[in-house]
Fold this sequence. Notes:
Layout: E1 4-7, H1 10-18, E2 25-31, E3 36-42, H2 49-53, E4 60-63, E5 66-67, E6 77-87, H3 96-106, E7 117-120, E8 125-135, H4 139-152, E9 169-171, E10 176-177, E11 182-183, E12 185-188, H5 196-204, H6 210-223, H7 243-260, H8 269-284, H9 287-298, H10 307-313, H11 316-322, H12 331-337, H13 342-345, H14 354-371, H15 377-401, H16 407-414, H17 418-429, H18 445-454, H19 471-484
Antiparallel strand pairs: 1-12, 2-3, 2-4, 4-9, 5-6, 6-8, 7-8, 7-12, 10-11
Amino acid sequence: MQAIYNQIDPLKYIKILHRDTDGYITFMRKFKYTDKVKQQHVYLNEITPELINSYVCKDSYLSLNSFYRPLRRNNQLRTIHNFYVDLDCYSKGLIPEQVILHLNKDYFKSKLPVPNVILYSGRGLALIWQAEAISGLAIEKWRKVQREIFNLLQDFGADSKCTTDAARVFRLPASINSKSNEVVRYDHLHNSLIDIKTFSTYFLTGNENEKPQQHKANSENNANGEETKSKQPKKKLPKRFTVNSLLMGRLKDLETLIKIRKGKMEGYRERLLFVARHYTYLLTENKEKAIQKILELNGLFDVPLSEGEVVNSTASAIRYADSNDNLRLYNATLTEWFDITEAEMQHLSILISKSEKQRRNRKTKEKARRMAGAKTKAEYNRRRTARVKRLLAKLKLIRATYPKLTYTAIAKLMSVSKSYITKLVKMLAEGIYVEPTASPVKVNTITAIMNAVTNPLKLASKNAIESFVTSEQLLEYQNFDTSTQ
């Protein structure tokens, strides 16, 4: 096609970028003086001239990729079908025309492919490459290319914030940039699509010969006997799961998750079935079993998908499994995709968070302590409270009988520290003392003590000091009190 320049038709621009995507496209508008943001999520076939006209105003934006649900998030990506970079060239003292001239001369067709669209956003510009659509699950592959683009164009003010954000929005043509009061426009250069592998070849040029040369230099140093730094062996971590057990555990957790939610999985069905088909095929290497598994899971949904939709929407799972560059899905990624809550994690085995793992470890250690004879916290507090009550009763009895005893003498007789006696006295003064419930005291304290001293062999079972003070201690108290008077 022949390149078209200085276009402002927003509908044509949308059809160029999104082509035949079947996901949600996001329109966004910022309100300058209120800091409010309005977002609207629609399908491509729902976009009307009236809808577009409502966004032909100041500071309107459009997403460059599509989403499963009406949520503009990286974990909700339906397809990724554009590479891009935002060049804030004004921060480098450049104007867009200067940047384009330099890129045409030194970058395009050598270091980078020619972009499909150049968007003039007001003070800067954006380069957009149309790509063959890939699943939102392959975002890490997309990000590798994005980082290389950013590294190449840093000198022109490449914005690092949009480098790895596949949910990014760019300004909508025909809208107005409120910072520069300029109308957003674009150039449409060609319609050719590019895939990730082809794009990646631009970054390999000139680097393939460097690694062998470096390896050769290292070999020569070793041959000459020069000292080289020996590489420390990597510390081996304990293997808690094999690949198969990990995949099987995740599959079981996904099935459990469906049952916990009673089949209400709207917004998660396609992605869950994709992951299940991918994992089942990796485990069995059998395409029929993989399809059978996802059909079983689909039957657990309260609103199942049609069989054709189940098979067609997850077909790329087999392609990723057969490729050498398999998907790397972490537990944190899966829990984020399916919005698994902490309460739901208590019923799962693999797809759990760090806090849930720590909770289980605490529970296991606590059970081990119980098996070893350790008391529970409640039992410990009960015993501690009972001991304090006994000591308070003992202290109250001693002070009532021998009020002239010093804290040091009382501490020695009670086998506790002087500072602890001070705490006990303070508790008595504040009214914290509670009478022992084992044997209520209804006799005169002094009479009980004298009876215990004069008749040590006739101590009654309900004696007020029986469980606190022995006859020898009482004699010692009596002698001590006599000597002090």
